[in-house]
Specification:
Blueprint (H helix, E strand, L loop, with lengths): L19 H9 L5 H5 L5 E5 L13 E18 L2 E12 L2 E8 L4 H4 L5 E10 L3 E4 L2 E4 L17 E5 L8 H15 L9 H4 L7 H9 L4 H32 L10 H8 L8 H15 L5 E6 L5 H14 L3 E5 L3 H14 L7 E4 L5 H13 L4 E4 L13 E6 L7 H8 L6 E6 L5 H7 L4 E5 L9 E6 L4 H13 L3 E5 L14 H12 L5 E4 L5 H12 L5 E4 L12 E7 L6 H8 L9 E6 L5 H12 L3 H12 L1 H5 L1 H4 L13 H17 L9 H11 L3 H4 L2
Helix pairs in contact: 6-7, 7-23, 7-24, 8-10, 9-10, 19-20
Length: 700
């Protein structure tokens, strides 16, 4: 039995039917050993235990049926430029008949001859009577599934359906996992210490793993799943607790002087009073700055909640303590917005603000680089350009990352390394429920601003269908005639012969000549140079342009209080988070604001996104609905963000289970920081295997 060379655990090739090619396909999916295979859990199960009578079937049912062939036929069907084969069978039981179609499986005709008995599992549709299209089938012999059937594990039981592994069929995975359970289940060590499982009434690990793969009933699945979800949450929370402990032990080597007089001077720079939420966030940031270890805080809040003001407060606190501060923005438009706002707030002060963007000419970059290096520039506003090797700070004390989810792990880490243990503040206008934030960013402190600043008005959101374009344009015309302004957002820059989507350039020309000839129509998109974008945005801010056509470059950072209308063309093509961010561009002034969604959403995810926009403007609710629509992997972008991939990501929404795992992890790490005690060694090894490689990046 060939073992895994590193661990002594049998490799997948030790299992029957797994040759070199199949083993390589499994390896590409991260499955190298029999134990890895045991932890490749099903995505869901199909209940194929008891056949349903045909007379009980309804349109849309997923069901198992037992039929005998009354009539069989088929042949080749041309269409779409190719020829497809189909086997058509009329099957019957004692209660009725059902049509079964098997597409591109011509060999099925040899087994499904008149009089043959077979099982079929699939979805029932009503098309000139009830039928199943391409169900799973197996022919019976003497009324039973033959014991030598290649897919005998797929019938008369709860059948596991596994996440796809490229190049492998479900039946191969089922057979390999079934054999691994029979031969290697005793290799699994339970990583949950007794004190972390007290009172939970979980099945033992081996029993749970066997039940998650081949359960007797749905209740078995539920019990096993809860146990395995808790284990995964506990491992994640222990990993984050260990990382957090290492950060707390890291010394900054600098003590901030933060006095009431400094607080008064900084607040005097803002032309408004902070909201209660901003005050809470400021207090939490100040507590971090007073602590002996570096700040590592995530500040999240809805669009327009005032996160940037809190960030600027923190940056000025660093500057007052003779250190430098920098903010990293994902787009040049957002960076330019920060530069303008910071410059306005600091007018008349001795604080020098520098600006660094990727496409700036050398003659503009050189004095900024010099000022950052010698410390004469105390506040730097920058895009990705700040990550370049030539950018060296004299003493970077505070690093702020705006829209942190838009940056990769290594980009954020490169920014942190520009200083010697700088304080870190991450801003996110894509809020997620607090329990998820505490789980996914468990080594960060989390501040949340819920309140809207005074004067921020709710935005009315309206769906505009194909017949409503004229009325929508008239509504925009009335707003512009009254002295206000409007955004039109398109999904593309240029028109394409292959696409019917409106492009920004073509739409700007159409609005300028055919729809709003009486108004000035501007254009901004990501392919324009920095000066071109700055010029277009300045003309809009100054009111010289009434209608601005853009791509999603205006998604974040654009603050034009006079803009009262946002029109999003082909809104069904945008993600929910992007739509909510775009909507946040309006409602910033004293006038009522309207968001017009030009869309043909239909059903499915696009329809769900549009419905969410129409039903709520709460960013936390939007984020939770986005999570459910898109699925956890895509929502969190695990590869981009550094958040470890989870086998049961849905468990993150189980607040009681998550809270129990957090408290248990904190207690374990507090009592045994090295997890060196004998009862904790299996836990330590499990954490190392799952998350060890990512611990160094968890902080960012």
């Amino acid at each position: 039995m060939p073992p895994d060379r590193d661990s002594g655990i049998p490799s997948v090739q030790s299992l029957k039917g797994i040759g070199p090619a199949t083993a390589e396909a499994l390896r590409r999916a991260g499955i190298g050993t029999a134990v890895d295979l045991l932890h490749h859990y099903p995505r869901h199960h199909e209940d194929r235990r008891r056949p349903r009578p045909v007379s009980a079937l309804r349109d849309g049912d997923e069901a198992l049926v037992r039929l005998r062939v009354v009539k069989a036929g088929g042949g080749e069907v041309p269409g779409g430029g190719r020829v497809r084969s189909v086997v058509r069978v009329t099957g019957a039981d004692d209660t009725g008949t059902l049509e079964v179609e098997l597409w591109n499986q011509p060999w099925r005709a040899r087994h499904l001859r008149e009089g043959a008995e077979f099982l079929a599992f699939g979805r029932v549709v009503r098309m000139r009577g009830l039928r199943m299209r391409s169900p799973a089938t197996t022919t019976l012999k003497d009324g039973e599934v033959p014991p030598d059937s290649a897919d005998r594990l797929a019938w008369n039981r709860m059948v596991p359906v596994y996440p796809l592994v490229e190049g492998l069929k479900q039946r191969i995975l089922r057979a390999a996992i079934h054999e691994a359970l029979e031969r290697h289940l005793d290799l699994l060590e339970d990583p949950i210490p007794a004190e972390a499982a007290a009172g939970m009434r979980f099945p033992p690990l081996r029993e749970a793993v066997a039940a998650i793969h081949f359960p007797e009933s749905p209740d078995d699945v539920a019990r096993a799943r809860t146990r395995l979800e808790y284990e995964e949450l506990l491992l994640l929370q222990v990993a984050l607790a260990l990382r957090r402990r290492s950060l707390v032990r890291e010394r900054r080597g600098f003590a901030y002087a933060l006095t009431p007089e400094l607080d008064r001077r900084i607040r005097a720079r803002f032309p408004f009073r902070f909201t209660a939420g901003q005050d809470r966030a400021v207090e939490e940031v100040l507590a971090d700055l007073r602590a002996p270890h570096p700040m590592n805080r995530l500040l999240q809040g809805d669009v327009g909640s005032g996160k940037t003001a809190v960030a600027l407060y923190a940056m000025l606190a660093a500057v007052a303590n003779r250190r430098q501060a920098a903010i990293l923005a994902p787009t040049e438009i957002l960076a330019e917005q920060h530069r303008v706002n910071f410059g306005r707030a600091l007018e008349g002060s001795r604080v020098r603000v520098g600006f660094l963007a990727g496409k700036a000419p050398v003659r503009e970059r050189r004095p900024v680089l010099r000022g950052v290096a010698d410390g004469s520039i105390q506040v730097l506003v920058a895009t990705h350009a700040v990550l370049e090797r030539e950018v060296e700070f004299r003493d970077l004390g505070l690093a702020v990352v705006d829209e942190q989810h838009r940056f990769g792990v290594r980009q954020r880490d490169a920014f942190r390394r520009k200083g010697l243990r700088p304080d870190l503040l991450y801003l996110s206008a894509t809020p997620i429920p607090r329990t998820l934030a505490l789980s996914l960013y468990g080594d960060l402190d989390v501040s949340v601003i819920v309140e809207r600043p005074p004067g921020r008005k709710p935005v009315r959101t309206v769906l505009v269908d194909a017949g409503g374009e004229g009325a929508a344009h008239e509504a925009v015309r009335r707003e512009c005639a009254a002295g206000r302004q409007a955004f039109f957002v398109c999904p593309l820059v240029e028109a394409s012969a292959k696409s019917d989507l409106r492009a920004a350039e073509a739409e700007a020309e159409r609005l300028r000549t055919a729809v709003f000839p009486e108004f000035e129509v501007g254009l901004v998109h990501g392919r324009m140079t920095g000066p071109e974008k700055r010029g277009a945005m300045e003309a809009f801010r100054a009111g010289r342009v009434q209608v601005l056509v853009s791509t999603v470059v205006v998604e974040v950072g654009v603050d034009v209080p006079n803009a009262s209308v946002l029109a999003v063309l082909h809104a069904e093509r945008f993600g929910l988070s992007t739509l909510h961010q775009l909507r946040g561009r309006i409602g910033r002034g004293p006038h009522p604001a309207t968001c017009l969604l030009f869309a043909s959403p239909g059903e499915g995810d696009a329809g769900e996104r549009i419905r969410a926009m129409l039903e709520t403007d709460d960013g936390f609710e939007i984020a939770e609905r986005d999570l459910r629509i898109r699925g956890f992997g895509e929502f969190f972008g695990t590869r981009q963000s550094g958040v470890p991939e989870l086998r049961f990501p849905e468990a993150l929404l189980d607040a009681p289970l998550l809270d129990r795992a957090r408290r248990a992890a904190a207690a374990l790490v507090e009592r045994d920081p090295a997890l060196a005690a004998a009862p904790h060694r299996a836990l330590r090894e499990a954490v190392r295997r799952r998350f060890g490689g990512r611990l160094d990046l968890a902080r960012v």
